[in-house]
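Field: sequence (string)
Field: structure_tokens (string)

Example rows 1 and 2, in order.
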Amino acid sequence: MTQHEYVFVAISIILGLAITRLLHNVATLIRAFSRVNFHPATAVWGLCVMIYCLQLWWVGWGLRSIETWSFADFAVLIAGSIFLYGAAEMALPVPGESRELNFLNHSQGLGRLSSLSMLLYFLVGPYVNIKLFAVEVLPALVIPAIGAIILLLMITVPRAYRWLSLVFTLYTGLVLTVTI
């Protein structure tokens, strides 16, 4: 087993749990459909969280050429995975925790913690891009900074969540085109 495989086992477990959590929440919301007040902005947010989980997993394959890993590299990637798990955990309302299954109210309330967790994940990106992928500093800082600004607005201006979730979705599409 290479060091890359060893490192990515732990990351894969955390990302797998995040994806499982999102899919489980979707399934329970489908089962409780009569109590759900659906809003596309929250659904799109959940999809974006899923995309970032898959994107980190995919991008991790590009790190296979690293022969010697430091504990710092491992710790940063684990932290990023944990932040994505946090974003997944809080992305959607959960039946049973409350009677209200209003997607938009959830996103403007508890869902802001999901955005905060995603913001913390975005702070990991520059380290990975600069240190592990040897990307130039400016693009490695500017692209995540744009996402961080959108996330900060989502956290601090919850009434703008509807349109900010769409802006973040477009940003996510940009990130995918750059990284895959």
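Row 2 begins here:
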Amino acid sequence: MTIGRALQRTVRILSAAGLPQARRDAELLLAEVLNRPRTELFSHPEREISGSQLHRLALGVRRRRRHYPLQYILGRQEFYGRVFQVSPAVLIPRPETEIVVEEALRTLREMAGRRLRGLDLGTGSGCIAITLVCEEPRLRVTAVDNSWEALQVAAANAGLLGAERLQLICGDLFGPLSPHQRFDLIVSNPPYVSPDRWREVDRSVRLFEPPGAVFAPPDGLSVYRRILREGLSRLAPRGSLVLELGYDDEAGVTEEATLHGWELCRKARDLAGFVRCVQLRPARAGAPSRSEQHF
């Protein structure tokens, strides 16, 4: 079978499965099997595909037609200009989380000092922690996750991307840390979907991504509450907390933040206009001016 025919056939199968980007998915799957750039699919459509390559393509198509995430099939996802390894042990990095990185970097650049300490809660693939370390040379980050499998993925990414100022720890949020550790920045993309909204979640997410990184029973705010309750005592003077939010979590999280003694400094919106990130500081440090950054 030629490249051109294999591509057409793959597009038909994925389209019939209801995948919205069937053409893109087919091109990426075929390019991966051939170990060639996507452009070569069009410049040499007459080239024959070997039997082993067709077999590998069929396996990938079979998984993708069930809405298995393409990133897990390929084993990677781009994030903030870098390629991260991913597996079913970790949440797939998404563009919304790049907003969190932007706000965290902005916060760090406003801080004085030659050495800064960061904490990433629920690091998963390590995409936030590793990006911050690579972008801010003054920063050392402790990254915590309660999954050994996720930390193995994060460790592999740290090694591939040269994130040497990163410490990985297995445990539940602040639990594994020394009582005396303090941080200039705490950042987190916690699970924030209420279980009763299970059917609203994209099929590929609810079926194949780690549920502990997606759902936060009973109401979607439980992990936020823990971070807000325990985080005040973990910040260094003039430190900040940066959180990713679900698309409709702004009111709930800001209310919880006020109840637990935090002040809102900034909030950042995604392209659809939803607030997807907030920067908070302890209220006792003074009342910072409120502002918004639009993306």
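free_text_note (row 2): The longest helix spans residues 95-109.
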